[in-house]
Sequence to fold (228 residues):
Amino acid sequence: QVQLQESGPGLVKPSETLSLTCTVSGGSSSSYYWSWIRQPPGKGLEWIGYIYYSGSTNYKPSLKSRVTISVDTSKNQISLKLSSVTAADTAVYYCARVDDYRFFDYWGQGTLVTVSS
Amino acid sequence: QSALTQPASVSGSPGQSITISCTGTSSDVGSYNLVSWYQQHPGKAPKLMIYEVSKRPSGVSNRFSGSKSGNTASLTISGLQAEDEADYYCCSYAGSNTFYVFGTGTKVTVL
Fold:
């Protein structure tokens, strides 16, 4: 059974860079797409971007200038960096496996990141 | 790219059937049979319930079914049970510029 676990700082200051890691267990990060999705408190889901195990990426256009997603297949880890954060970036951040770009079949439990000074 | 439109809330009594709509555009829902539905209980991660409009993953109850007509997809829950009370989100692939767009979310209440 594939399991995903997000980790990283729960508090980030405005204008700084948010950095999260997703560790995959029970399976390999190879041969799949991996996405980051976020959910502001009390609000809906927002797709941030994805990476293929080969390293190719695609991002939501409105976030593209601030987002970097990378993969380390040797560690089975997918990373997210979001720069120049503001309070609007406060959210629960989820990593999820993408089944051949069709749907998100496995999700991590999510991690809350608060942007505040 | 705007979020797909869902009703804010839907309710029903145990045993009844309810349907949640998900309205998009000809650029997303209307163009691709890549609509998926997710169930989210409070404080939990979303769970895949339907993919490719009407397919159920292994382990998901057959009380959940999906369909699509034009730019609108629908999720039907039949034989409503207390455990079905949750938020539900649709999602559609929207092409190689936008990629994925989620719905606004629907809170299902079992009366």
